[in-house]
């Protein structure tokens, strides 16, 4: 069976059934059921060294051996870590575990994109997507179960919000994908880039995300260069500054409109942190890191933000940014054709309008790419991720009511 070319179903007809059917299995793996064992996926290099020294009474370098077993060889059973002595293995069994997310559903698109539905606890599941391309393979990773921000063009936003993911649950997505791909860090690797662009606003889960990104970039983890790990934010201004202080990753900003009135409608967070404040934070981020750039994501919605006047506004904003940081091409624009989902009021811009929009920006000397839609046949395209969220807000229920009113309940179920 060619896994690239066909959907792999793990004996379940649909995602909701899958989650329910696995609940009893997951119950056995909950933290309560395994007492106080530490999940080693939660620990970056320094914390793992501390754990070895302070909890196990071992030399710090032993942590390096275990990291290689986990992240390079995908081994989770301490009994198989053959270069560790018997006594150490017994101590690890007593105090630790390596617990990966449960793969509930594993789907391959006809274009090579791969999506995993991963169980995080008995009630919640998130999605991660791998997108292979010429010479690179990018994993889109989730940071929260659902999202509190409610961007109007995003399927995740309609699901409401449950909780932040732990470091283990974030790096666990990378581990599942890397193991599936047979990724060999530092050699001919298939997973070359990670984007924190899946479900959730990563800067609202700052500590866990930063710790997971440090494992992604660690040679004992996945060995990715700073510029190959990208965090995408809807514009959490104070946390952009903190990210600049604590991490060196690439930054992407979900912009989608170049004026406050429209952006506040599409991205409600804009009411709190308007464009001027957002651009000033982006400026500070770039100035901390010479030669870095920021990618501004712009989802193209028919008749909403895709007209020539919008392109001209965007070009002005991007030029101001380049001038402010005194660097050519500090601002890059990624145009994303809108990916529809059941119940949305938006439509994708026409190919013609997207090309005309891009030309206006290119003529203004703004580096502008159009992102190809990938994984649309398995709902894995940008803005389509939804997982399974036990919503703690009213949003999911409200959205379902709206769908019912439209007679589209089946499509949303
Ligand atoms: S676009 Fe990102 S920040 Fe906005 S609702 Fe979707 S997941 Fe949340």
Would you give an account of this structure?
It is built from 14 helices and 14 strands. With 413 residues, it is of the alpha/beta class. It has two domains: 32-97, DNA polymerase, domain 1; 102-412, Aldolase class I (TIM Barrel, Alpha-Beta Barrel). Helix 2 (45-55) packs across helix 3 (62-72) and helix 6 runs parallel beside helix 7. The radius of gyration is 22 Å and the shape is globular. The chain starts with 14 loop residues before the first helix and ends with a helix. The relative contact order is 0.12.
CATH structural fold name of the largest domain: TIM Barrel
Can you identify the CATH class of the largest domain?
A: Alpha Beta
CATH superfamily of the largest domain: Aldolase class I
Tell me the span between the first and last alpha carbons: 30 Å
Query: Radius of gyration over alpha carbons?
Result: 22 Å
Q: Kindly state the percentage of residues in helix.
A: 25-40%
Strand order of the largest sheet: 3-4-5-6-9-10-11-12-13-14
Low-confidence stretches: 1-34, 409-413
Number of strands: 14
Shape category: globular
Q: Say which molecules are bound, naming each kind only once.
A: iron/sulfur cluster
Q: What string, H for helix and E for strand, traces the elements in order?
A: HEHHHEEEEEEHEHEHEHEHHEHEHEHH
Major sheet: 10 strands, mixed
CATH architecture of the largest domain: Alpha-Beta Barrel
What's the total helix number? 14
The assigned structural class equals alpha/beta
Mean pLDDT equals 88
Number of domains: 2
